[in-house]
Specification:
- The chain is mainly α and about 525 residues long.
- Helices cover about 40% and strands about 5% of the residues.
- The protein has 19 helices and eight strands.
- The strands form four sheets. The chain has a two-stranded antiparallel sheet.
- The relative contact order is 0.13.
Length: about 525
């Protein structure tokens, strides 16, 4: 798996990222050692590490995708993560008969699944890009590279984000850094527990007082900082019992409180998912600073068929008012919510219940967009005041990777698991509920936390992870429509708590052992 060899090495994001608003380097005609002569060239190389999260290709939304053999639409990073993290749960079904797409929601995928491969290769492609940047930056001695240490720290943080997805989705994975190049035999495999330990050490180094990574909110919009690394580390601790076989809820609670002290809940939940949601960050403050890290989308300059473009277009179709309600010309008619997920909400009170209900709640046929199922209207290509956003076929809505509301709910969960006081957990839970316009509670249990996380964080790549941590993803403890491929839902093999390593990798690399059951 020589990921770096297939990587397009640089492309500039053309909006929102300051120093990285640059002209691309063409890797087909220029080798890194030929062009990395000054800081400006390294701007271009680092920009590609960011661009890989936002787009599928270095030229247009999906022309000549970065990864050979993976479609530029469904292979976009956030869209690939959405399929694996959300479409596999009660949050979403998709009516398109696209190759193996039904198998994702039905929890019956195989080692050769197209959509699993798209997520797998996109994650490790990003790791390879970041490794290459770190390797090249460490090796250079050019004059005037004043931001070298900061740039290396950013690449390390971006690499951590992708390894965070790797440890969650795939468990024991191929592991390589800037110190061990990927040869013809492929990388070594690391155990989930050892990867956890490495990631924890990396996070702590990037959060140290002498770290070159910018402090929370002290960098250009769209760039990673210590706030995002705090969230990655908190997620590691939250899931430590599953990923590393040890309980670290006290450590998670401590970090959650630190994050809550740095960021605040935005007053209006809907604003966080509008076309001008950049105003809800610590970098560009507008009535709060909730969003910690985003993957930018720009209707003119940062375009893809994934990320929020996919979520908004695929959630819209049929008789929905695409223009007035969603800020697009017309929808693709793909994504529906299961009735079981909708039942988590008090639709009459909860401001987060942003649904199109005309086709009914029941989901009798997942192959027909208009046959049933509520549609999510959470993400929109409209500004927070309802005015039209810029639109030329692509949306302007950034994807929030981390929000402080998640930290509030992590604290609430950790309190019920013995990692914080009951009073702290209750206060955090009620802060989120109050913002949603629903009644505060005087007591709660872990099932209440899971339900609250579902209501608050849907379509934000957390649902599968949460259901696994609560023991409800593959078991009969919680069923939803078409889980296991039947309308009433059924339990499935526990092997589906992990996705398989891509079969082509396992077949070509004798160092890799496939996940159990596959």
């Amino acid at each position: 798996m020589n990921i770096v060899a297939t990587a397009a090495l640089a492309l500039g994001l053309t909006a929102c990222v300051g120093d990285l608003n640059v002209t691309p380097i063409d890797p087909n005609t220029q080798l890194p050692e030929d062009v990395l002569k000054d800081q400006g060239a390294f701007n271009q190389l680092l920009a590609k590490c960011y661009q890989g999260l936002a787009c599928s290709a270095s030229d247009g939304p999906d022309s000549s995708p970065d990864i050979n053999g993976v479609d530029g639409g469904y292979g976009q990073y956030i869209r690939a993560m959405f399929h694996l993290q959300c479409l596999s749960t009660d949050e979403a079904t998709c009516c398109w008969n696209d190759q193996t797409l039904y198998d994702i929601h039905n929890l019956c995928w195989s080692t050769s699944d197209t959509f699993v491969a798209a997520g797998y290769y996109r994650v490790f492609y990003q790791v390879g890009l970041c490794n290459e940047f770190i390797r090249q930056a460490n090796a250079t001695q050019i004059e005037g590279f004043s931001k070298k240490e900061q740039y290396i720290a950013e690449a390390r943080a971006l690499r951590l984000l992708s390894y965070y997805h790797a440890i969650d989705l795939f468990g024991n994975v191929p592991f390589f850094t800037e110190d061990n190049s990927v040869g013809s035999e492929g990388p070594d495999q690391i155990s989930r527990a050892d990867l956890f330990a490495w990631m924890e050490t990396e996070c702590q180094a990037l959060l140290a007082s002498d770290s070159a990574l910018p402090k929370a909110g002290k960098t250009e919009y769209g760039r990673i900082d210590q706030g995002a690394v705090q969230m990655i580390l908190a997620k590691l601790y939250l899931n430590a019992e599953v990923w590393a076989g040890k309980k670290m809820y006290s450590e998670c609670a401590t970090l959650a409180k630190e994050i809550m002290a740095e960021y605040s809940l935005h007053a209006n939940y809907a604003d966080l998912f509008c076309a001008d949601n950049h105003l809800c960050t610590k970098n560009v403050t507008y009535n709060g600073d909730e969003i910690i890290f985003v993957v930018p989308q720009d209707g003119m300059n940062i375009r893809s068929y994934g990320a929020t473009n996919y979520i908004i277009f695929a959630s819209t179709g049929g008789d929905m008012d695409a223009s007035g309600s969603m800020g697009i010309s017309s929808g693709w008619g793909g994504l529906s919510l299961t009735p079981d997920f909708v039942n988590l909400f008090d639709e009459n009170a909860d401001s987060r219940a942003m649904f199109y209900t005309q086709y009914g709640k029941e989901l009798d046929d997942i192959t027909d967009f208009k046959a049933g199922g509520y549609k999510s209207m959470k993400f929109k290509n409209l500004n927070h005041d309802g005015s039209a956003a810029q639109f030329d076929g692509f949306v302007d809505t950034d994807f929030p990777v981390f929000r402080v509301a998640d930290a509030y709910l992590m604290l609430a969960e950790c309190a019920k698991r013995g990692g914080a006081s009951e009073a702290e957990g209750l206060s955090a839970l009620n802060a989120v509920r109050s913002r949603a316009g629903i009644n505060e509670v005087v007591k709660y249990d872990l099932d209440d936390v899971l339900a609250e996380r579902g209501r608050e964080l849907y379509h934000e790549l957390s649902r599968r992870q949460d259901l696994i941590r609560f023991g409800k993803f593959t078991t009969s403890d919680y069923l939803w429509a078409w889980k296991g491929g039947v309308k009433e839902g059924k339990a499935v093999d526990a092997k589906f708590n992990l996705y398989p390593l891509c079969s082509s990798d396992v077949n070509s690399n004798s160092k890799l052992t496939q996940n159990p059951g596959y």
